Amino acid sequence: MDTIGIDIGTVSIKYVRCSGKGTKITVVSKGEYAYSGDITDLEVIFSEIAASEGTNNEIVAGITSEDIVKKTFTIPILPKKEQKEVLNWSTTKILSVPLEDMVYEHVMLGEVDEKGVKKEEVLFVGARKQYANTILAALRHAGFRHISLITDIAFTYFQVIEEEIKGSVALIDVGGRRTGIFIFDAKNLMFAREILTASESFTDSLMSATDYSYDNAAKYIREKGLNDEFYDVLRMPFERLEGEIQRTFSVYNQRYPDKQITKVFLAGRGAKIPQFFERLKETMIEETDYLPAPREIEVEFIPAYTLCMDGDIYPNLLPEEVKASGKEQSYVRWLKIGSAIIFPVLLFLSLGLFGSLNKANITLSIEKANLAKKQDGIKKLSAMTASSVSQSELSIIRSEALKKDVTFITLIKFLSSKLPRDVYVKSIDFVSEAQAGVSATPAAQQALPKVAPQIAPQAPAKTQKGEPQKPASKNYNLTLKGYILGEPETLELTMFDFIIALKKSGFIRNVEVTSNTFREMKGRKVIEFSVNAKVLNYEI
After folding, report:
1. What is the pTM of this model?
2. How many whole angstroms separate alpha carbon 494 and alpha carbon 4?
3. Is there a domain that residue 351 lies in?
4. Are residues 153 and 166 in the same domain?
5. Which CATH number belongs to the domain containing residue 41 in this structure?
6. HSE on the CB side for 219, CA within 13 Å?
7. Are 220 and 311 contained in the same domain?
8. Taking the CA of residue 295 as centre, how many other CA atoms within 13 Å lie in the half-sphere pointing to its CB?
9. Segment 205-247, tens digit of pLDDT
10. Which of 169, 179, 193, 381 is 20 to 30 Å from 457 by CA-CA measure?
């Protein structure tokens, strides 16, 4: 099965059909269609590609669109199994739409130093489900069934960037209606920005200053470009574009001082405008060149070509159920191939294994007997342990443990959402006021079995006079310890904001600062604090 890479741009759609995988692909055919951006045109173009190349091909699509969101943010360094919840929670803070309405992926970019604290940087790539389903429906309407990838075109260029280049590499893709500024480091897309000044901006400026029609103005830009004749007219869009590029580079170099941009490549239809490359190169301090194209393809077909190379490395914005279906089909295909190879091997091995079967059965019988003895001992030990602890003692311990668990989770949620910036909590300790009143007999202090027996609800204990005991206090004594970072003159103000936030919470009260010490940490002034308070248990 061949692969068709489709580059859905702002003014044209280009495709490349390739056979093979990875770097050993061969171009079979290619094509380009004018595109207005209307979904009806999209379906017509896909149908023409299907008529030309057939529908029994794997489809990978890359899109240049404002409907694809790319944003970077940082999270604390966490184990992988704990990252997902933190990633999704952090993403909701930077989006204007509900996360559940999007298809998305998080790309981990590596560690960064943020105000002296090591954090993990993340690139979020996502699109609304409705938009992704629209692209998918148009492809299926054209007859394509093997659709394995929908991604952002920004990711496709790094596969043709030379690996030996030192430092970060910027790619400026001057398209029809948008210019993409993409910055890569070590094959990772570290920074992405798209601006509206692009090739058609020059056509629009020439039309507004002359009596040229759109076709005549576009032809002039395509053939004569930014020569001296109309450069005064075209200077404004050029300088606007050049200024946005410089500002983008400045922001990146400030954020990553150890990953400075050393090389700039130009691509897209705008890079072909006469005199555009020469004038832009004069304004750049970085080494600037055209993006080199693979030998078998023209530069404008690079995104469609690289989509065919290895689609698995790109963020995939297909709906989850479609991706799951594609994986299932792939597993079935490989299972058929594997079965044909493995069956003769299994037949050969089975002849050798048959002789060992009787010996294995004898060993298994011995092991079963030993296991039965151990299980019998465990049952006796469990009965002894359970009988040594009264039901009332277990009820008190179990109830207190449940309260603490839920209270601790509530406290963590509050701190994670309301903790002022630059306040870092290093420890949380709390015990109930009633803990001292819970009698712990020597029997109750013994190790309890992992699975406690079912305990029936107990009636309230009574005093010697027959009156019920007072209910346990609903408060826990809370101690928070941590650090406050920031500028020296704002440390005390941040501390004040922190205390106010605790008091406003509603379930943390009697807040008292027991320690408030200035000290140096990694050459910076910080406040090391300790705060005592009372926190209501989960019943609130």
Report:
1. 0.58
2. 56
3. no
4. no
5. 3.30.420.380
6. 5
7. no
8. 4
9. 999 988 899 999 999 999 999 988 888 989 999 999 999 999 9
10. 381
